[in-house]
Amino acid sequence: MLLVPFIRENRAQVEAGLKVKNFKDIAILEEIIIADDQRREIQKKLDDTLSESNKIAKEIGGLFKSGKVEEANKKKALTADLKELSKTLSEDLNSIQIKLTELLLRVPNVAHNSVPKGNSEEDNEIVKTVGEIPQMDKNALPHWELAEKYDIIDFKLGNKITGAGFPVYKGKGARLQRALINFFLDNATAAGFREVQPPLMVNEDSGYGTGQLPDKEGQMYYVGEDNLYLIPTAEVPITNIYRNTIVKSEDFPIRNTAYSQCFRREAGSYGKDVRGLNRLHQFDKVEIVVIEHPDKSYARLEEMNEYVQSLLVKLELPYRVLRLCGGDLSFTSALTFDMEVYSAAQKRWLEVSSVSNFESYQANRLKLRFKDENGKTQLAHTLNGSALALPRIVAALLENNQCEQGIKIPKALVAYTGFEYIN
RNA sequence: GGAGAAUUGGCAGAGUGGUCGAAUGCGGCGGUCUUGAAAACCGUUGAGGGUCAUACCUCCGGGGGUUCGAAUCCCUCAUUCUCCGCCA
User: Fold this and answer.
1) Quick one: which of A157, A132, A118, A94 has its CA closest to A19?
2) What is the DSSP string of A221-237?
3) One of A53, A235, A255, A279 is an active-site residue; which one?
4) Residue A201's beta-bridge partner residues?
5) Separation of alpha carbons A252 and A363, rounded Å
6) Which nucleotide is closest to A60, CA to C1'?
7) Nearest nt (C1') to A63 (CA)?
């Protein structure tokens, strides 16, 4: 959520950034400012009213103390009108505040000035492509067939136990999962991230804090009995560690990483996108989250970008880096880089990571602040990225590394799997 | 799940209807002293709204209520602790 003073002071920049994002309802900015003006006006009246009745209450207190009961009782009558007025005013204040928040929630984050214009993923800028695209022979199998051939991932069994999108990993398939998780966590730790193990369910406040609620409510599994949500990503619990806190600026950058299973309803997805491991309801991911000083957040984004790429290099996967265009950028992000690996048998690029700078958009909802050099509290910047999401990495590993002997495990992973081939 | 107790500023801990945004201690910051440091002493030290700056308003776990007036009373929810039950 944007800050109203920010909108007031940087109107041109905000409008330009929203236009890049193809946000149509620019007029809402004016509504916000009007609502905020009203809010201030009502607030002022309320404050004055309360000030007045506080004064009288104190006087009454004094009169009682000095035994002037009658005079005190007389004064009581004076407060009746003020009470009535302050009640009306605080109701008004409440409703204008709700309206203001509701307006603000409809405004996405402002795109960074490096974000290219565009409407869809077609318009994303390919920053770079690394590695050779493997040329497979005609018999190359897609990963869902390889999974069955080597009996390592069982989609049918998952259907039986739970439903579509909940595969069962078996034998070396399960071991490969565990190997990747450890590999990613070890690398993150070496890169300076603190490992945390968060809850897999979060409450409503946390959902609002990172912005899953209210707009993406339908995408999360909801446990109504206890009013909890299954996390769609570890970003939610990790970032919410810092909800409602004022961090020390000398602690910047605050780097956390977590492995978690992620749960997504993925309502509305279909076709080749959901085939095999391409899109699941439950999957594994290692996430990195950074909290940083506003002046340094873009340097940190670059660092995270490099870090994620280093993982792909170690896994010997061909990949490309995209700078998302305005139309493809998420609601809350100011700048996002996507990493995609090439999946040789499907002959397509699969998104395995997305690193974003949310600037203060999330921090505002989270009330995540720090004290600056002048001792003033201001909003911190939050960033996060996948490092990495497992299923599509597994898909690419299986497809790209299929050979006579089976599936070849990349060197860097062998220490974790304990085997060189799946066969 | 049942019964009881508790929830106050960074931490500890007073405060049970009136001048309490809140004693005191510790910690933090600034200063005096010192060659330097420690100790001692003095000062300062929560957040949000509002203002050019004051004034002023709100916040004592969350929400609601009683009252002229609530950290203090009532209701409700959450959390923590103790006992019982169940249990990896």
Assistant:
1) A118
2) -EEGGGTEEE-SSTHHH
3) A279
4) A230
5) 14
6) B68
7) B18
CATH tag for A4-105 (out of 3.40.50.300, 1.10.287.40, 2.40.160.20, 2.30.30.40): 1.10.287.40
Q: pLDDT by residue (tens digit) across A289-346?
A: 999 999 999 999 999 999 999 999 999 999 999 999 999 999 999 999 999 999 999 9
- Residues paired with A384 in a beta bridge: A289, A356
3-state per-residue secondary structure call for A371-420: ECCCCCEEECEEEEEEEEEHHHHHHHHHHHCEECCEEECCHHHHHHHCCC
| Active-site residue (options: A53, A354, A356, A386) | A354
In this structure, the protein residues whose CB atom falls closer than 7 angstroms to any atom of nucleic acid strand B are: A 40, 43-44, 46-48, 50-51, 53-58, 60-62, 64-65, 76, 79, 83, 246, 369, 371, 377
Told to judge if A392 belongs to the known catalytic residues of this protein, a careful annotator would answer yes
Q: Does A264 participate in catalysis according to the annotation? A: yes
Q: What is the ipTM of this complex?
A: 0.86
- Bases of chain B below 7 A from a protein C-beta are 18-19, 47-51, 55-58, 68-69
Which residue is closest to B62 in terms of CA–C1' distance?
Answer: A205
Those residues whose C-beta lies under 8 Å from the C-beta of residue A267, and which sit 6 or more positions away, are: A218, A219
Which residue, among A382, A337, A178, A154, has the nearest Cα to A261 in the 3D structure?
A: A178
CATH fold of A121-422 reads: BirA Bifunctional Protein; domain 2 (3.30.930)
Residues A78-129: tens digit of each pLDDT: 888 888 898 899 989 988 998 999 999 999 999 999 999 999 899 999 999 9
A11 among known catalytic residues: no
As beta bridge partners, residue A348 has A343
User: What residue ranges do the domains of chain A occupy?
Assistant: 4-105, 121-422
Residue A120 designated active-site: no
| Type of residue numbered A295 | D
